[in-house]
């Protein structure tokens, strides 16, 4: 359920021309000003991570369906996943499609699943790519990735989109390597967001696992402190919004994707994810809709 404050902020953003609403909740066009902030923030993340020399991968919004199947996402979050379907019939089916369209009926029944699924988290397609290369070198793998992501969670909260951009850094290696990486990015993520001049808090968190079994998974994730979130108040101080996530997957994704260390054992993985739209929404909320009037320190951090 969206709150009044969320709907009010959404209306302000639309009135200011920063977002353009569509007929679908959580699906927007973004303005040039919005995009400029995303690009500037992205460049700041790049500068921060560049010292480690990550390999850069930029993904389209879709990935092979097999990657979704292997990832375990359908077991944990069937309610959020999306697949791309397309027409696959002949003349008869085409005529039926046109007739249904003209009657205003549902025309989608004949659509068949393609080999492409929407990407739910920017790091997933990178594991397939790394696994294909065979056992990892001694220093593991370090990636700087970005993807449009789809999650089926329609909402009037402007910070809860169905299609949004996730920037991540991803580490594959020994437990020690990936935990060191997560510690480093916990500090860097905090420093980046402090330089953005927004109030923030870092807290242990859990994913919205589906169903009754999911409650146990969520409790376990919290107990083991596998996920942290950097939270910034956007439309509520009591319920601040997760703008960054720091995830330690242990060997789950290593098992799922066949990621191996040089000695043949299963690799561990961790990622830090920046929700780019949420970060822009936090900046606009705290510093106003005109970036030229933002505090000098924030402008300096972004426009250097
Ligand atoms: P994992 O790899 O374990 O699935 P992840 O870090 O890739 O985790 P999340 O932690 O679920 O995925 O999401 C990462 C970030 O993406 C969040 O911190 C948030 O900023 C952003 N995000 C998630 N869902 C949405 C959404 N519906 N709309 C906008 N941004 C979102
Ligand atoms: Zn990730």
Concise summary:
The protein has 304 residues and is an alpha+beta fold.
What this model shows, in words?
With 304 residues, the chain is an alpha+beta fold. The chain has 2 domains: 3-82 and 120-303, BirA Bifunctional Protein, domain 2 (2-Layer Sandwich); 85-117, no CATH class. It is built from 11 helices and 12 strands. The chain has helices at 4-15, 32-49, 65-71, 73-76, 91-103, 124-132, 175-195, 211-223, 252-257, 276-287, 296-302, and strands at residues 19-21, 28-30, 55-58, 62-64, 83-87, 111-118, 141-150, 163-173, 201-204, 227-232, 241-248, 268-275. The protein has a 7-stranded mixed β-sheet. Strands 4-6-5 form a 3-stranded antiparallel β-sheet. The radius of gyration is 21 Å and the shape is globular. The chain binds adenosine-5'-triphosphate (ATP) and zinc ion (ZN). Residues 121, 123, 151, 153, 160-161, 164, 166, 207, 229, 242-245, 247, 271, 273, 275, 277-278 line the site of adenosine-5'-triphosphate. Zinc ion binds at residues 121, 123, 168, 247, 271, 273.
Detail the topology: elements first, then pairings.
Blueprint: H1 4-15, E1 19-21, E2 28-30, H2 32-49, E3 55-58, E4 62-64, H3 65-71, H4 73-76, E5 83-87, H5 91-103, E6 111-118, H6 124-132, E7 141-150, E8 163-173, H7 175-195, E9 201-204, H8 211-223, E10 227-232, E11 241-248, H9 252-257, E12 268-275, H10 276-287, H11 296-302
Parallel strand pairs: 3-7
Antiparallel strand pairs: 1-2, 4-6, 5-6, 7-8, 8-12, 9-10, 10-11, 11-12
Helix pairs in contact: 2-10
Adenosine-5'-triphosphate binds at residues 121, 123, 151, 153, 160-161, 164, 166, 207, 229, 242-245, 247, 271, 273, 275, 277-278.
């Amino acid at each position: 359920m969206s709150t009044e404050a969320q709907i009010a902020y959404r209306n302000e953003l639309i009135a200011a021309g920063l977002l353009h609403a569509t007929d679908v909740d959580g699906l927007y066009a973004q303005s040039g000003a919005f995009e400029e902030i995303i690009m500037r923030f992205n460049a700041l993340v790049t500068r921060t991570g560049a010292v480690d020399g990550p390999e850069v991968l930029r993904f389209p919004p879709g990935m092979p369906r097999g990657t979704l199947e292997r990832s375990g996402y359908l077991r944990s979050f069937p309610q959020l996943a999306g697949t791309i379907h397309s027409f696959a019939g002949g003349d008869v089916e085409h005529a039926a499609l046109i007739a249904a369209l003209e009657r205003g009926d549902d025309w989608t029944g004949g659509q068949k699943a393609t080999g492409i699924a929407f990407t739910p988290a920017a790091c997933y397609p990178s594991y397939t790519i790394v696994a294909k290369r065979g056992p990892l070198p001694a220093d593991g793998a370090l990636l700087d990735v970005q993807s449009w992501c789809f999650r089926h969670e329609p909402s009037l909260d402007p910070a809860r989109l169905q299609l949004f951009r996730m920037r991540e850094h991803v580490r594959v290696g020994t437990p020690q390597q990936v935990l060191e990486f997560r510690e480093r990015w916990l500090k860097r993520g905090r420093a980046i967001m402090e330089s953005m001049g927004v109030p923030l808090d870092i807290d242990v968190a859990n994913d919205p696992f589906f169903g009754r079994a999911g409650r146990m998974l969520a409790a376990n994730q919290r107990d083991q402190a596998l996920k942290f979130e950097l939270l910034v108040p956007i439309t509520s101080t009591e319920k601040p919004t997760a703008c960054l996530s720091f995830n330690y997957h242990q060997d789950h994704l290593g098992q799922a994707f066949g990621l191996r260390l040089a000695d043949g054992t299963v690799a561990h993985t961790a990622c830090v994810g920046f929700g780019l739209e949420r970060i822009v929404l936090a900046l606009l909320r705290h510093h106003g809709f005109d970036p030229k009037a933002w505090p000098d320190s924030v402008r300096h951090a972004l426009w250097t």
